[in-house]
Amino acid sequence: MPDETTHQQTYDDGIAMRKAVLGAAHVEKSLSNVTDFSRPIQELVTEYCWGTVWTRDGLDKRTRSLLNLAMLTAMNRNHELAVHVKGAVTNGCTEQEIQEVLLQAAVYVGVPAALESFRVAEGTLAELSAAIR
Fold it and tell me: Where in the chain is the domain with CATH 1.20.1290.10?
């Protein structure tokens, strides 16, 4: 049965979820750097990734964050990994849980990818810890 939600509603939900997970400053900076060329991908990511998938009831935000860390490790997407480590912390994931996900990923997707993810995650967690002090 089709959902009656409009594209604008889904986009607005996506903006709200992005800000809740990644922080308003990060999202506003990303959107302020949008060009005519990059606008379509930013709109797609916001509407479908954040507004359609992240807002579903089937998984909580913590679980989605941990899954993202594993998948980004598998794909060696370290810039996005750093962003999602911050999001995972925002969503209540502990350092130990992040570490465990990266160890699990090492077994299934390869040690070199996990080693780099450990470096990125450790640096990101150190930045977050320094910002709190």
Answer: 59-133
Q: How many angstroms separate the Cα of 86 from the Cα of each of 5, 7, 76?
A: 30, 28, 17
> Exposure pattern of 46-80 as b/e (b: 16+ CB <10 Å)?
bbeebbbebeeeeeebeebbbebbbebbeeebbee
Per-residue pLDDT tens digits for 59-93 = 999 999 999 999 999 999 999 999 999 999 999 99
The pTM (predicted TM-score) of the whole model is 0.90
User: Which H helix or E strand runs over 128?
Assistant: helix 111-132
Could you tell me which CATH number the domain at 59-133 has? 1.20.1290.10
Those residues whose C-beta lies under 8 Å from the C-beta of residue 105, and which sit 6 or more positions away, are 69, 70, 73, 74, 113, 114, 117
Residues in CB range of 74: below 8 A, 6 or more apart: 105, 108, 109, 113
